[in-house]
């Protein structure tokens, strides 16, 4: 064989080898990337080729699948009581993707999750029978919150302090995910309407919209003062002039109730009457670092809070001057919190100072009901404050409900402790304030406990009537009553 033929043969072999490498790359790498592309219609067709698995509440499916006509997609997602559970399920749409539990567990619900597959299924890439997602939601508590919020713009969360199970997640106004689950013109019109709605019904206010928490944040400051030893008891008188002048300024911090006994008040009385002067000065005396450390122990500034839906971080700021630190002590300045975060504060206090990881999925299972993952068993527990501090805070919170600003949260046959909050909204408080309430309740007969947080962003109440006790506490009361019923 002469040199020219030999070189041509080698070159041809190299070309064949390159072609084989390229074909393998396209088939296995680019092919998988194409299969995983959210815009790949064939992948979407496969996802909806069979009925989907379901999201379960108290043993009953709140999702379903319906056969379609005249579409590439054989099935589409349906919802039972869609508006009631939208803040839990999210939506699963043939056009607009999937959110929340529908999105997080998409592979499980459509049968492509490898945990569901046999070795043969994995090899052939055939989907398995879809699995289910079992939630921790209590339908009675969920409905109580939804109906109590009514036409108000707001949100509510309920947690079992002992287990971390989230019993309710409600955001209003809500929407019906079933109206946007298909690919027809009606779904497109519904999506357009929801997207342009100024009230933003697609936003999960319970988990993903931090707002100034107002006086509910005073519980965090009180916890820091007791844990630090700044004051040894909620009944020890504080050094708190009334009015309190913000450090470095001539601005006097007023109390909502000018007749309240807030001068040098104890922490109990300061919570009872929601004395701004006491908690502003406590924050300054402690210093922003100690308050921040306590806030972060409760969960503030956590960018990785998954329940399993990723909750937006509640924020306690840094690098403040003393005047700003004082305002942070009453839940203003740049402090923000979600209802989930504030419910976590009350849950830890109710659970003797320990916070169990909040979660709204109990377990996932395959089509035969076999448990794939048990989230209840995985829930971790972290001590936030001492048992003694938690006991004192519970006692002071009970005074708020029994004799103070939270009387609308009383529940017959239960011990209830709470804290109201009214947070400024807009430049120079030009807009309607946010009304907050957080509480815990324990049944006097069964010992069952629940912790809740409620925020009302907007209602038809006159500005002068906006208060945590007037707007948010009745919602919390309905939720606690539902949670503790026999």
CATH top level of the domain at 208-362 and 381-484 is: Alpha Beta
**Averaged pLDDT:** 92
Helix percent reads: 25-40%
CATH architecture of the domain at 208-362 and 381-484: 3-Layer(aba) Sandwich
Structural class: alpha+beta
Number of strands: 18
Question: How are the strands of the biggest sheet laid out side by side?
Answer: 2-1-7-13-14
The share of residues in extended strands comes to: 15-25%
* CATH homologous superfamily caption of the domain at 208-362 and 381-484: DD-peptidase/beta-lactamase superfamily
- Tell me the number of helical segments per DSSP (H or I, 4 or more residues long): 18
The low-confidence parts are none
- The rounded distance between the terminal residues' Cα atoms is 95 Å
Rounded to the nearest angstrom, the radius of gyration is 27 Å
Sum up the overall morphology in one term.
elongated
User: In this structure, how is the largest beta sheet organized?
Assistant: 5 strands, mixed
CATH topology descriptor of the domain at 208-362 and 381-484: Beta-lactamase
What is this entry, summarized?
39% of the residues lie in helices and 19% in strands.
Explain how this protein is built.
This protein has a 5-stranded mixed beta sheet. The protein has a 5-stranded antiparallel beta sheet with strand order 9-8-18-17-16. The protein has a two-stranded antiparallel ribbon with strand order 3-4. Among the domains are: 1-28; 208-362 and 381-484, Beta-lactamase, CATH 3.40.710. The protein has 486 residues and is α+β, with helices and mostly antiparallel strands. The model has no long low-confidence stretch (mean pLDDT 92). The protein contains 18 helices and 18 strands.
């Amino acid at each position: 064989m002469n040199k020219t033929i030999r070189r041509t043969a080698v070159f041809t072999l190299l070309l064949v080898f390159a072609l084989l490498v390229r074909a393998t790359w396209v088939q296995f790498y680019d092919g998988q990337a194409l299969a995983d592309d959210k815009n790949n219609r064939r992948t979407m067709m496969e996802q909806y080729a069979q009925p989907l698995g379901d999201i379960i509440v108290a043993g009953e499916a709140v999702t379903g699948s319906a056969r379609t006509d005249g579409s590439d997609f054989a099935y589409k997602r349906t919802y039972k009581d869609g508006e009631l559970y939208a803040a839990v399920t999210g939506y699963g749409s043939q056009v607009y993707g999937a959110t929340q539990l529908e999105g997080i567990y998409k592979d499980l619900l459509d049968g492509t999750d490898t945990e569901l597959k046999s070795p043969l299924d994995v090899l052939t890439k055939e989907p398995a029978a879809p699995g289910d997602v079992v939630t921790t939601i209590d339908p009675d508590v969920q409905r109580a919150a939804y109906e109590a919020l009514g036409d108000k713009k707001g949100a509510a969360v309920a947690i079992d302090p002992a287990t971390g199970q989230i019993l309710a997640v409600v955001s209003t106004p809500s929407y019906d995910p079933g109206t946007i689950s298909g690919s027809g013109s009606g779904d497109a019109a519904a999506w357009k309407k929801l997207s342009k709605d100024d009230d933003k019904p697609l936003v999960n206010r319970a988990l993903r919209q931090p707002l100034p928490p107002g006086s509910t944040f005073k519980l965090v400051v009180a916890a820091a003062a007791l844990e630090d030893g700044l004051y040894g008891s909620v009944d020890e008188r504080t050094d708190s002039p009334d009015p309190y002048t913000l450090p470095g300024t001539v601005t006097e911090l007023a109390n909502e109730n000018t007749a309240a006994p807030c001068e040098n008040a104890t922490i109990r009385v300061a919570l009872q009457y929601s004395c701004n002067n006491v908690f502003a000065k406590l924050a300054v005396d402690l210093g922003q670092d100690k308050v921040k450390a306590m806030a972060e122990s409760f969960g503030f500034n956590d960018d990785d809070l998954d329940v399993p839906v990723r909750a937006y971080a509640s924020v306690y700021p840094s690098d403040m001057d003393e005047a700003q630190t004082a305002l942070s002590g009453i839940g203003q300045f740049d402090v923000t919190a979600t209802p989930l975060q504030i419910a976590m504060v009350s849950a830890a206090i109710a659970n003797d100072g320990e916070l169990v990881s909040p979660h709204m999925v109990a377990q996932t299972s395959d089509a035969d009901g076999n448990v794939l993952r048990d989230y209840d068993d995985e829930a971790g527990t972290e001590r936030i404050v001492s048992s003694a501090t938690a006991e004192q805070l519970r006692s002071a919170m009970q005074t708020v409900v029994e004799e103070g600003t939270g009387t609308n949260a009383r529940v017959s046959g239960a011990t209830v402790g709470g804290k109201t909050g009214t947070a400024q909204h807009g430049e120079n408080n030009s807009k309607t304030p946010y009304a907050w309430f957080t509480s815990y309740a324990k049944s006097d007969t069964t010992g069952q406990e629940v912790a809740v947080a409620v925020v009302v962003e907007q209602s038809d109440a006159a500005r002068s009537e906006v208060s945590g006790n007037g707007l948010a506490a009745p919602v919390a009361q309905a939720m606690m009553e539902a949670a503790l019923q026999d």
